[in-house]
Amino acid sequence: HQLGILHGPNLNLLGTREPGIYGHETLADINHGLELLARDLDIGLTCFQSNSEADLINWVHQHRSLSGLVINPAAYTHTSVALRDALAGTAIPFVEVHLSNIHRREPFRHHSYFSDQAVGVICGLGSEGYRAGLRFLHQHLTHKQT
Ligand code: DQA
Predict the structure, then answer these.
(1) What is the pLDDT of residues 63-80, one digit of tens each?
(2) In the chain, how many domains are there?
(3) 133 and which of 10, 56, 70, 74 could share a cystine (Cβ 3.0–4.6 Å)?
(4) Ligand 1 atom closest to 11 (CA)
(5) How far is CA 9 from each of CA 14, 27, 36, 53, 79, rounded to the nearest angstrom?
């Protein structure tokens, strides 16, 4: 399987961005851990981050052949019908991940344009959420084929 990790806006600042909420790990640390896990699971992995909604949408279009995605849409979670439609339009199965528990935070973070389309949603587990999402997708896709 070839799987993808997609990170939305401001996640490039991880490590220094509101560490009380998002922790001290950098995005490079998180991606490195995911690459090690992918190697263990014997799956291919492509990671991408952008602050631009258009670039995220174009990336999804260009990677429509991926078997699955782990996506943290970050602030676009709460605003982007366009990124939601890109995922629906390419029909890539995805797990939605948030580092923080968005339901313990401001009310405007409680709604996601992605959750009703997601295979599953993980929030509040920090970077472990990405690894759990990747492990789950690997299992889910393997079982679907057998
Ligand atoms: C986030 C939660 C969002 O509300 C926020 O805009 C982010 C990160 C998270 O990972 O906890 O940028 O998706």
Answers:
(1) 999 999 999 999 999 999
(2) 1
(3) 70
(4) 12
(5) 11, 12, 24, 8, 12
